[in-house]
């Protein structure tokens, strides 16, 4: 893990805009980005709508929030959370400088 990189993750305007579309006119729910063991490369991303916990890092923009728990934060230091809409599908993506390799679909990685 790139421990010299102590920057918090950042979220692109495109990701916040997509989260706003998902939340619609109803109450806004934060997007949780977490890291768990598993996947084909050792770790996998868990991305879902959730509630913020007291000890989460909250990243805000465009009236939306992305939350990261303290255990996942070192794995996501300096990462960029984005949204991609491509021919193969639309999804939130993570450009993670801590990952030494990742699977083809981008949902798991190794350090």
Q: What this model shows, in words?
A:
InterPro entries: ATAP (IPR016092), ATAP_core_dom (IPR000361), FeS_cluster_insertion_CS (IPR017870), HesB-like_dom_sf (IPR035903). One of its GO terms (biological process) is iron-sulfur cluster assembly. It comes from Paracoccus denitrificans (strain Pd 1222). By secondary structure, this protein is mostly beta strands. It has one domain: Hypothetical Protein Aq_1857, Chain: A, CATH 2.60.300. Helices cover 10% and strands 41% of the residues. It has one helix and nine strands. Strands 4-5-2-3-9-8 form a six-stranded mixed beta sheet, covered by helices on one side. Strand 8 and strand 9 form a beta hairpin. The N and C termini lie close together (6 Å).
Q: TL;DR?
A:
The chain is mainly β. The protein contains 1 helix and 9 strands, in the order βαββββββββ.
Total count of domains: 1
Query: Approximately how much beta-strand content do the residues carry?
Result: 35-45%
CATH architecture annotation name = Sandwich
Radius of gyration: 14 Å
Count of beta strands: 9
Task: Compute the number of helices.
Answer: 1
Q: What are the main properties of this structure?
A:
Hypothetical Protein Aq_1857, Chain: A; mainly beta; six-stranded mixed sheet; globular; 1 helix; 9 strands
Layout of strands and helices, then pairs:
Elements: E1 10-11, H1 13-23, E2 31-37, E3 43-49, E4 57-61, E5 64-68, E6 80-86, E7 89-95, E8 101-102, E9 108-110
Parallel strand pairs: 1-6, 2-5
Antiparallel strand pairs: 2-3, 3-9, 4-5, 6-7, 8-9
């Amino acid at each position: 893990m790139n421990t010299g990189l102590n920057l918090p993750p950042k979220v692109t305007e495109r990701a916040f805009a997509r989260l706003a579309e998902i939340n619609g006119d109803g109450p806004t729910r934060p997007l949780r980005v977490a890291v768990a063991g598993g996947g084909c490369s050792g770790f996998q991303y868990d991305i879902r709508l959730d509630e913020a916990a007291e000890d989460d890092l909250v990243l805000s923009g465009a009236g939306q929030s992305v939350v990261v728990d303290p255990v996942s934060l070192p794995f996501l230091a300096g990462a960029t959370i984005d949204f991609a809409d491509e021919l193969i599908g639309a999804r939130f993506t993570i450009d993670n400088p801590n990952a030494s390799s990742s699977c083809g679909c981008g949902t798991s990685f190794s350090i």
